Amino acid sequence: MKNLSLKEKIGQLIVVRTTGYLFDHQIRYPAWEANQQQLQTWLSEYNIGGVILLGGSCAEIAQRTKQLNQWAKTPLLVAADIEEGVGQRFTGASWFPPPMALAQIAQDDLELAKKYAEEMGKITAKEALCIGVNWIFAPVVDVNNNPDNPVINVRAFGDNPEVVKELSSAFIRGTQSYPILNGAKHFPGHGDTSTDSHLDLPVINHSQARLEKIELVPFQGAIALNVDAIMTAHLLVSAYDNQNPATLSHRILTEELRHNMGFEGLIVTDALIMGGVAKYAPPEKIAVKALQAGADILLMPENPVVAIHSIIEAVEKGEISEHRIDESLQRVSKAKEKLFKSQESFSFVDISTNDSQQVINEILVKSNQTSVLKPIVGLDKGINLVVVNNLLNCDFLDRQSPSITIPDSFGYHAQVFDQCNLYIWENQLITEPFILQVFVRGNPFRGTAGLSAIALKAYEQILENHHLQGIMVYGSPYVLDWFKNQIPTPIPWGFSYGQMAIAQRTICNKMFQLSTNLDITKGNFL
């Protein structure tokens, strides 16, 4: 990248968020997602280096990425948080169960779990390239050793640092089969927190020796494999820096990650609009401090134009040198060269193939847990009580979802609640047979990893009702542990780490004793 102005150099160090949908009226998060006019201005006048996409189908994303690159002055980094496969964010592609499912398999067969992790990386990379995404913000290499972690939770490859290292490294190797960028996150380790950094700043008070023994182990594995990028965590890690969040800490990003651990790739901040860092300082100061700390890419600053001008001002004042900007620009240029020198092409025929669906099914079947002494029997009239975290945010559930249609075919008709309103159902006098299906897992912005106090009280009463015929839990193994201690012995139960349709089908098939064979010719599960 030659002959760029200072403004254009800085622009290359910024990745902004936008919708994957094609039209402005489809924007779902206007506070975070730029509209068409903003994007055209930022890309053409400010030379913004990349975008992170959310929402839309694979076909839309393929068109959207072409559109954005047409507007861009320089070919774009196109990123996505696709930790569980492309289908996690963009409909139509392969959607894997969360990484902790592989940790479950690893308890019995680490080599098999590594094989699946590598296949997951390969499939995710190939499908991403099919739609124009060239940067995978994955794998999560945090060691989730705190069951109450509300934001990492099942996104991690478990709670054992060596297993997390082996599985995340296998995922990275899988992505390296293709000309795409990967990114380990969240440095120096977000696994042992009970605060969601999207909402506030978590504090970690472990010693440096403990951090090196547990949290840093998977990052060392990723660095040994030449991982392309490492994403920072908005954490206050007192053993290193008791003043600045890791994202804004020179001690953590430059001294520890760059110098001590020898990482030479891109350091990308977690989103700068998140509460864990946004509450720390004004947006214009955050951008400058992140670069001073050693970050190369500023992800989702509140306003990229403000960020650029604040950095220009800092250069003019001597607070940061243009040479420091050039160092990051060189790393960005190197990453883009890796992406754009390949002539390999991909098409929609490579998305969600029978082979990828087979891998997903095998992971689910081998990680599911069930206890079915006798299957749930059909009847004339019953209730299918379905509970989700939030009725307005559950894209895995609709009237055609297997968790609705399969029980319905056996006479159990759906009633859907979210956890906060479960007390309504609790106070009803239930005199007919019913089953319970619970969808709950840690996720960003939830603020909690498990069951609410209202839900716990309701579930205790539900489990005492002798009309209960069976229980299915999707998502959190920590929630499953609570239920397993409460479920009456003869009641059949099933658990899947996944919440998507294929996970629902595997569990419901088991609970109702249906065939679970994969019909490869039709691409669906019987």
How would you describe the overall organization of this protein?
- This protein has 19 helices and 18 strands.
- Helix 3 (58-71) links the parallel strand 2 (50-54) and strand 3 (77-80).
- The chain folds into two domains: 13-25 and 58-342, TIM Barrel; 368-525, 3-Layer(aba) Sandwich (Rossmann fold).
- It is α/β, with parallel strands linked by helices and 526 residues long.
- The model is unreliable at 517-526 (pLDDT under 50).
- 53% of the residues are buried.
- Helix content is 39%, strand content 14%.
Low-confidence stretches: 517-526
**How far is the first residue's CA from the last residue's CA?**
53 Å
State the helical fraction. Answer: 25-40%
Give the mean pLDDT: 92
What does the overall shape look like? Answer: globular
CATH A-level architecture of the largest domain: Alpha-Beta Barrel
- What do we call the CATH homologous superfamily of the largest domain? Glycoside hydrolase, family 3, N-terminal domain
Q: What can be said about the biggest beta sheet?
A: 6 strands, mixed
State the name of the first-level CATH class of the largest domain: Alpha Beta
Strand content: 5-15%
What is the count of helical runs? 19
> How many domains would you count in the coordinates?
2
Query: Which sequence of strands runs across the widest sheet?
Result: 11-16-15-14-12-13
Would you count the extended β strands for me?
18
Task: Provide the structure class.
Answer: alpha/beta
CA-based gyration radius: 24 Å
- CATH topology group of the largest domain: TIM Barrel
